[in-house]
């Protein structure tokens, strides 16, 4: 290998929604190093601890221990999986899916995919489920991540479209961060904010968080609210602004609707009431309202603290109302900017890869949209019945309504709430297909069929980051072992499934052959899902966006090559993508006006009570990513926290007679886990914080029955269907 030339490949970091560009230097099959891409607008060369160690997580030595290298299969549930070849694995899977669809109908199968797949992967999965099989049972771990931000944007601004960009971090003179520890979750964007603060005298930073996170520690004003009381706080801030005449009435009158109902709804939301509910001083609420309204450019940044809640949509709606009322939107340095958790949660929404969506932001409940997609795909009809969302899918699997589930690039046995129920669902399923690059996720243990997929550094496609910027993902080294690209696995399966369904004579509007003459693009071959390259898929996806709010008909792989990453929309003829939305004050609603929607305060799903008196919050550590398939392979990523430890306020730690390294049992209404506790000044009294990165694979081996999410509740927001992973009532006892 040393004789081979050194090659540089530009791609993106696979971790968070900042979407940093990286340059990978390789020699032969070996990565020499990974550096920040100095030309990428998301990071201008900077990387955080996770991105800068990508090379160390992709060595032959590491991969030899954790990667899936060949298909595995078991025909009987009581057998162990055994190595097989691709044809056998896919033939078996196609036959089983066809049998279940023929016997029980298309909704007897489901796909649970991932915000870490590339847009092209997402597109073909969605087309397979909705276009070929005829089920909307396709959802994604983005449901756990951004769906409340989506429903908040759609409810108020008319489209799932963050209006801001990363340059706004440096242009705002007031930044309002709610429910986000950016310092850990979006480190490179956070550094940009730090630099902006240093350069701008008088800059104001307000942070809303129950904890004194590293982000909150930097704030000029930290509103240390009780968990789940954000709507009360935001409503009270708007109440204060109204009382003091700090509203931008010209913008309200010209560009919004629903303001009168908002005024009525907010009448009772005094700062005094909010102070008592939120547990923060009344004066601080007034100060926050003053700074927010009276700064010249206010930018909000928010993430899972708002989204992962049964009131997630309301929290987003109430925060966006602050921007609409003060005119802090559609301008440089101003606007409601939801930070995407995963690297491509937004790309998945663009292609409609969720149980409630269709491609290019089309809606299942809009007959015209359903007809457009059916025509585009050349199928007679698309089901307009919403499919099972993430939590619902595993409920239906447990109940036997869904018989087979296909999990790709995610780990529901670890990351879904009430994970023991998820484990039962996977055990009950007739067939579990897992498509993953790694053997280590807890979900792999339930697989009847394991399909090894390529991962970062090996695959091609595109992703979209938090600021709507589409970047190319490029392969720098060959596929590991026999693994295949995710899109290719789907296509290979789809062609077999189509044949099996035809053999079984499944009565299907999708399979009458009409699609063969009506492929929307000049694709090779004549099967429903047939692409000769990943670029073919991008081009087909691009056509679905024509005339839509996210129109990217001006984009191509060639344009991304020559002009670099671009923000959508970028319609045909535009020289570049759109940096900021709504600068003209026109919104993609029926009237062209943004909407005020009054959201009354509702408490969390599980209030603390005498039996479960502690409020449990779950979250991210600085150096780990999700279930740790990749970050868990590197010892230095454990220097911050070596194992899961529950953090309690020092006074509570003492009250429980705990000493350093004491063990505690943490019991919720669903499960009990046992782990070490530590005293931590950053945690509020009667609250507890637990990192999300350790799942059943850790606890099963060492300390008990299940992972962190055995404790959390599957109660979810009625609009976004996002579960309340940020709050569960628990009891904590010394053991
Ligand atoms: Fe990767 Fe996010 Fe870190 Fe950038 S900030 S290097 S995208 S993990």
Automatic annotation (TrEMBL):
Its cofactor is Mo-bis(molybdopterin guanine dinucleotide); [4Fe-4S] cluster. The keyword Oxidoreductase applies. This is Nitrate reductase. It comes from Limnobacter thiooxidans. GO terms for biological process: cellular respiration; nitrate assimilation. Keywords: 4Fe-4S, Iron, Iron-sulfur, Metal-binding, Molybdenum, Nitrate assimilation, Oxidoreductase. The keyword Chaperone does not apply. Belongs to the prokaryotic molybdopterin-containing oxidoreductase family. NasA/NapA/NarB subfamily. GO terms for molecular function: 4 iron, 4 sulfur cluster binding; metal ion binding; molybdopterin cofactor binding; oxidoreductase activity. One of its GO terms (cellular component) is membrane. Residues 6-62 form the 4Fe-4S Mo/W bis-MGD-type domain.
